[in-house]
């Protein structure tokens, strides 16, 4: 099939490469010249395991190209809109400017029979609004909404082999045709038995935000339990193991720690709340504000623990392990690690942080923090060490070897990822969260 992908950020670049890998002919379009130049040279503009290989093979096959020239979409019949919907500067709602601009440009160039497929995470009601625009400006074009559930770090795998496919389509013949075309796009996954849910626009949009809201709630639930564990001497990790054995609950996404960050969960729950308020149903998801608060409180808790450990923050040397919002990513958007490093620095601590991939992105946002290229360098002379992103190279550090580099053997494990017994045996004062 001939596919265009509008927006080559995280979602779009991965989607374009994965679609070409599946055998489709794909053009990725973005306004950012640097991004297009990088992708055209088969260089991923961000760290994502597996993406460079797929970009290289798809580009070499001639099935994948990237351009800033919007007219390239004229060579495609299926158009994925994968632009960002960040939190708006004025409040919690999603900023829809990029989506609206993409549709504006696209509708000038589509031809009868084309299918436009929305992938961006949008407030429920957006697809219906855009469908009216499509009906006005390009009446023989159909709009479908096909949310994306990929996780950073596993983005290529999640795109090629998703655990479900959701198509929001209009009723009638046009909708059936759009669903058939999407089955063709995802032929391999469909043939492998991936569940396909064909539904209306509103349900498709809601599936996406509901899934992220559920995941965020699960994480904040266990972090709320961590707060109670801290007040009672209970161990939240054992608690999670024990309740996780109940198949109805499940152990995944029950890791207590500094909580969730990234470009999706935090802004998606805020946008969902904002949209529910617009719909007059703010009460229904008011708990998401609490989910957000619990999450943010964990960051403050780490800052307090450092203060307690060092007897103050001014002039205290803190070695921070991790900057990305999670391992296997260079993404520092709403990263708990970067937030904590900046708060410590703002309160006068001398912070040296490191991360295997995220230093450059972090440096741009947090110039007050000093950066080191190895964990050894980051903790050298530290009064307190804080582990915030559980990269395997940090989790595997030898407490005895690291202990020789610091001034005081004091560690705060912001992800409950270390073995407390091993660190205590090496003479460290160990603090997890909720244990
Ligand atoms: C999330 C969803 O998991 C994807 O399904 C979704 O497609 C994506 O958002 C999106 O909307 O684009 P992602 O942001 O890549 O994916 O990251 P997650 O793996 O969900 O982790 C989010 C945050 O939660 C990380 O900061 C992670 O450290 C934290 N987390 C995760 C916990 O604190 N505890 C856990 O048990 C699990």
Automatic annotation (TrEMBL):
Ligand binding (substrate): 149-152, 208, 253-257, 261, 326
An example molecular function term from Gene Ontology annotations: NAD binding
Catalytic residue positions: 264
Recorded metabolic or biological pathway in which this protein acts: Nucleotide-sugar biosynthesis; UDP-alpha-D-glucuronate biosynthesis; UDP-alpha-D-glucuronate from UDP-alpha-D-glucose: step 1/1
SUPFAM superfamilies for the chain: 6-phosphogluconate dehydrogenase C-terminal domain-like, NAD(P)-binding Rossmann-fold domains, UDP-glucose/GDP-mannose dehydrogenase C-terminal domain
One GO BP annotation of this record: polysaccharide biosynthetic process
Chemical reaction(s) catalysed: UDP-alpha-D-glucose + 2 NAD(+) + H2O = UDP-alpha-D-glucuronate + 2 NADH + 3 H(+)
Domain of life (superkingdom): Bacteria
Keyword terms, alphabetized: NAD, Oxidoreductase
Residues of the UDP-glucose/GDP-mannose dehydrogenase C-terminal domain: 319-420
Annotated residues for binding of NAD(+): 30, 35, 85, 121, 152, 267, 333
Enzyme class name: oxidoreductase
Pfam family, one: UDPG_MGDP_dh
Enzyme Commission no: 1.1.1.22
Family to which this protein belongs: Belongs to the UDP-glucose/GDP-mannose dehydrogenase family.
Protein name in the entry: UDP-glucose 6-dehydrogenase
Organism: Leifsonia sp. NPDC080035
């Amino acid at each position: 099939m001939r596919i265009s992908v509008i927006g080559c950020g995280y979602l779009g670049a991965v989607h374009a490469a994965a679609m070409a890998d599946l055998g489709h002919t794909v053009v990725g379009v973005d306004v950012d010249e640097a991004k297009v130049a990088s992708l055209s040279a088969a260089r991923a503009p961000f760290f994502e395991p597996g993406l460079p290989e797929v970009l290289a093979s798809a580009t070499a096959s001639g099935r994948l190209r990237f351009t800033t020239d919007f007219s390239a979409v004229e060579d495609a019949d299926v158009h994925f809109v994968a632009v960002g919907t960040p939190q708006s500067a004025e409040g919690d709602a999603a900023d829809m400017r990029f989506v609206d601009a993409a549709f504006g440009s696209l509708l000038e160039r589509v031809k009868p029979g084309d299918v436009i497929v929305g992938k961006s995470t949008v407030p429920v009601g957006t697809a219906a609004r855009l469908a009216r625009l499509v009906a006005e400006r390009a009446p023989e074009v159909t709009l479908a909404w096909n949310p994306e559930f990929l996780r950073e770090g596993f983005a290529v795998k999640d795109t090629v082999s998703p655990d479900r496919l959701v198509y929001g389509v209009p009723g009638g013949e046009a909708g059936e045709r759009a669903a058939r075309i999407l089955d063709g796009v995802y032929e391999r996954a469909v043939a492998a038995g991936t569940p396909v849910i064909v539904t209306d626009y509103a349900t498709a949009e809601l599936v996406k935000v509901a899934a992220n809201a559920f995941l965020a709630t699960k994480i904040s639930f266990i972090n709320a339990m961590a707060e109670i564990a801290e007040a009672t001497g209970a161990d939240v990790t054992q608690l999670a193991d024990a309740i996780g054995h109940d198949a109805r609950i499940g152990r995944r996404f029950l890791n207590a720690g500094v909580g969730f960050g990234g470009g999706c969960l935090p802004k998606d729950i805020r946008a969902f709340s904002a949209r529910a308020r617009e719909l007059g149903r703010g009460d229904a998801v008011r708990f998401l504000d609490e989910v957000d608060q619990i999450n943010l409180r964990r960051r403050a808790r780490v800052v307090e623990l450092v203060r307690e450990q060092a007897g103050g923050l001014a002039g205290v040397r803190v070695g921070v392990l991790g900057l990305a919002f999670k391992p296997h990513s260079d993404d520092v958007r709403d990263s708990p690690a970067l937030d904590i490093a900046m708060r410590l620095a703002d309160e006068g601590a001398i912070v040296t942080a490191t991360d295997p991939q995220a230093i450059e992105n972090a440096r741009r946002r947090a110039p007050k923090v000093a950066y080191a290229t190895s964990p050894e360098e980051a903790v050298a002379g530290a009064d307190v060490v804080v582990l915030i992103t559980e990269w395997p190279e940090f989790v595997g550090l030898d407490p005895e070897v690291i202990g020789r580099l610091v001034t005081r053997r004091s560690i705060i494990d912001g992800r409950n990822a270390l073995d407390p017994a091993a660190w205590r045996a090496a003479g460290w004062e160990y603090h997890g969260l909720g244990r």
